[in-house]
Amino acid sequence: MELQASAPNLPATFVRPPTSAGRAAPFLPMSRAEMAALGWDACDIVLVTGDAYVDHPSFGMAIIGRLLESQGFRVGIIAQPDWQSAEPFKALGQPRLFFGVTGGNLDSMVNRYTADRRLRHDDAYTAGGEGGKRPDRCTIVYTQRCREAYKGVPIILGGIEASLRRIAHYDYWSDKVRRSILADAKADLLIYGNAERAVCEVAHRLAAGAAPQDLDSIRGVALFRRVPEHYTELPADDLDSTDEAATRKPGDTVIRLPAYEVVKDDKEAYARASRVLHREANPGNARPMVQRHGDRDLWLNPPPIPLTSEEMDAVYDLPYARAPHPAYGDAKIPAWDMIKFSVTIMRGCFGGCTFCSITEHEGRVIQNRSEGSILKEIEQIRDKTPGFTGVISDVGGPTANMYRMACKDPKIEAACRLPSCVFPDICPNLNTSHDDLIRLYRKVREVEGVKKVMVASGVRYDLAVRSPEYVKELVTHHVGGRLKIAPEHTERGPLDKMMKPGIGTYDRFKEMFDEAAKQAGKKYYLIPYFIAAHPGTTDEDMMHLALWLKKNDYRADQVQTFLPSPMATATAMYHTEINPLRGVRRGGSESVEAIKGMRQRRLHKAFLRYHDPENWPLLREALREMGRADLIGPRPDQLVPFSQPPGTGMGKAEGKPGGRPRHAGRPVFTTKGVPLRK
């Protein structure tokens, strides 16, 4: 059977002999009735997701489902099933090829709990914003229910929850090192990172009769297998040799990470495994890795090769309905409302911020869409998305301004093992030109029916200061009163552990921003983000940050406390109190202060909200303990006053039980708080 007429001309990477599907479905079916309307008696593939089903390329299951559909497969969706029994997982019948299981666009534990391990009562990826529609560690739970429903059907894991838990990893919510999610879920295969190529190849090879264990040659795949006899094993301990050539062996090599049974108890071994994993993240030179789990070896193939612009265009040009499934009726899905007028122009990030997991999932090499594909999507938003008023809410991606930036020399790019292209300084081999992005902005503004184009993605200001023309273009045309950026801290100690530039770079950007706003005749403000309790941060660091905030007249309304997400380098610092950015050697590793006690975490958060009277008792007590009682008083250069307003300071900020945080229960749809200028 031919591919449906509505499918785009997919590049050679995605073209395989199609199987059984017909035309593109209006929505991928979520019920037997929808299957019957399409003339299907069964699905080839059933995708199970922890998110509501929104048929839009900002939602992972929609991308994977539509891509598989374009290959000729019949694809159904089971979204947020009741996990109490296997019956909801039988809703579409037994899939002919496999179940694809994902936790959704966020790790389910990050989605359900705050940085203080408190249960969230809302979920931006659920109809009505209702919390509790997915279980903890939902990838594991869903897999178990799929297995109960149809025992012989292969189960393939994907999405960010599986991707960032692909090896033995520290889990903040249970405060222990857990096995690879592939082991805990008892699935057949795990696909990590940008999965488009891998999932197409997996589907076609399974359709051709291959078994999951036969798919060990596909990039971006993890599975349990024996190490082939012709491979040479390279212990992770050897990889910090100053002479990397000495670690190179002729022929095929695989890196042996410390076993799960070792890293769960040995923090130095865990830090070493984390360091090696991040050094083997470049698809140009990464080698396969293996990690023992009990009596089996977990095998990780090298990361996927980044998608070309042609491939990215093919993915984003698929026939999405660009709306939530009709089953949700008029219910609001907050995540959809946030992005329905926005456009993704690129993937990946070469910043390497240690608290962020974008690089571990999407990669360090920027993957770009073409101008034509981006403009076409904006026209689709204009013509098809209800409620469009002429405002594009965002043109960006993981960052706003890395579009078409890349290493000047492909050979250097393929050989590099540095975790960041911009820390401690911007690499001289990096092309930092903003010309392509400026040209794109101008073309987007010219689309008929578009009145305003916003840039809401985070601007990498250390790159922006290299292009005054970009800053002027941004401020003149693409800012709506406030621009959010993320210096994260003011002090060198925590900034080095974050791999972020110094506050001086922020100051230079602010000068350029203010001047551009003045020239444009606008009154605009920068909204800086800061992190409390990040590894490597002392109480004194937070005190100095609070003084900087007060001096610059910033008052943070909601703030972000460091959350140790799976696989992030900063999470390894938090768990091990070792710095994996440097060599990890027995007895010779650099130590890192980790902020784990709840009182100290509350204190660091209180410094960010120095202006809140609820925090003053805790801050006064801490300042006295730090020998800085001189900062208590009414002067502008002092941090908190002597006196307490009546009726304040009696809750948890004072360390007393029973108090309620001032902002508890408020919906939070961003990864960071939004400081408001006084």
Describe this structure as you would to a colleague.
The structure is a single chain. This protein has a 10-stranded mixed β-sheet with strand order 3-1-4-5-8-9-13-12-11-10, with helices on both faces. A 3-stranded parallel β-sheet has the order 21-22-24. Mean pLDDT is 91; it is low at 1-10 and 651-678. The N and C termini lie far apart (64 Å). A hairpin with a 4-residue loop joins strand 6 and strand 7 (176-178). Among the domains are: 12-220, Response regulator (Rossmann fold), CATH 3.40.50.2300; 224-293, no CATH class; 526-678, no CATH class. With 678 residues, the chain is α/β, with parallel strands linked by helices.
Brief characterization of the structure:
The protein is an alpha/beta fold. 30% of the residues lie in helices and 13% in strands. Helix 9 (267-279) packs antiparallel against helix 21, helix 17 packs across helix 19 (503-520) and helix 20 packs parallel to helix 22 (598-608).
Please state the overall shape, judged from the principal axes of the Cα atoms: globular
Strand order across the biggest sheet?
Answer: 3-1-4-5-8-9-13-12-11-10
Name the CATH homologous superfamily of the domain at 12-220.
Response regulator
Q: Report the sheet-strand fraction.
A: 5-15%
Structure class: alpha/beta
Largest sheet: 10 strands, mixed
The top-level CATH class of the domain at 12-220 is: Alpha Beta
Poorly predicted spans: 1-10, 651-678
Indicate the radius of gyration in whole angstroms. 25 Å
Q: Termini separation (Å)?
A: 64 Å
**Number of contiguous helices:** 23
Q: What would you say the CATH architecture of the domain at 12-220 is? A: 3-Layer(aba) Sandwich
CATH topology-level name of the domain at 12-220: Rossmann fold
Strand count: 25
User: Helicity range of the residues?
Assistant: 25-40%
Mean pLDDT: 91
